[in-house]
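Per-residue structure
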Amino acid sequence: MSRFHVLTPSDEQPAAIPVIRRIGFSDLREALEKGWEDFKVWPTHAIFLCIIYPLVGLVLGGMALGYAVLPLVFPLAAGFALLGPVAALMMYELSRRRERGEPTSIGHAFGVLRSPGFPAIVAIALLLMGLFLLWIATARGLYQSLFGVYGAPDAVVPFLRQVFTTSAGWDLIVYGNIIGFIFALVAFCISVISFPLLLDRDVGAATAIMTSFRAVMVNPVVMAAWGVIVAALLLAGSLPAFIGLAVVMPVLGHATWHLYRKLVI
C-alpha cells in the first residue's frame, strides 16, 4: 500500500535535489511570451471570473450593508499575490501537457488532482492560505491601531480622505506597504516554482520549498525583476474592479511554468 506523503516523495528512494540554472532577463520575456501563447490556446478567463466576481460581490455587498470593509479592500487585492500560485495550478498542468505533446484540453487541467505530489501541493497551498489570513489580520490590526476599532468610514470618499490627508493615514500607507512587502517576499520565495516542480517531479513539499528559495538566491536580481513584473501586472489587472485579473492571472500561471523549466534542470 502506498504511503501518504507530504514532506517527502512517495517513492522509497530519495529524489535527486533539483539543480538551479542561472537565467537572464531575456528568459523572463520568453516565459511571458510562451505564457501568452498558451493562454491563446486555452482562454481560461472564465474560470478566473468565477473566482473574482464573488470576491468583488462580497466587498460591494458589505459596503451596501454598511460594514466597515473598505480598509480590507487593498489587503484583499494584494492577497492575490499570495494565493495566485494556488489559483494557477491548472495553468501549470495545461502548459506542462502542451510542452510534452500530450492530449490537452480544459478537462485535462484537473489532472493535477491525480498528481503523485498532490498531498505536498495541498500542504504548501495551506501554508500560503495561512500567510494570507495572517496578512489580513495584520492589516486589520494595523488599521485599528491607527484609527481605532470604529474608525472605518462606510463610504469611499471619506475613507480616501482619512487615508491621504491625515498623519495616521500616511503611517498606514508606509507601514502597511512595508509589512505587505515582507509577506509577499516570503510567499514569493516559497511558491515561485514549488508548485510547477511538484507537478513535474514527486520531490515532496520540503524539497519543493527549498528549491524555490534556492532559485531566488541563485538569481536574485532576475527573480526580483520577475516579482516586480508579477506585482505590476496584478496591479494593472486589478483596475478596474479586478476584472483584468481574469486574463493576467492565467497568463502569469502559464508563464510561471515556462520560467520553472528555464530555472530547474
Residues 25-263 form one domain. The chain has a mean pLDDT of 83.
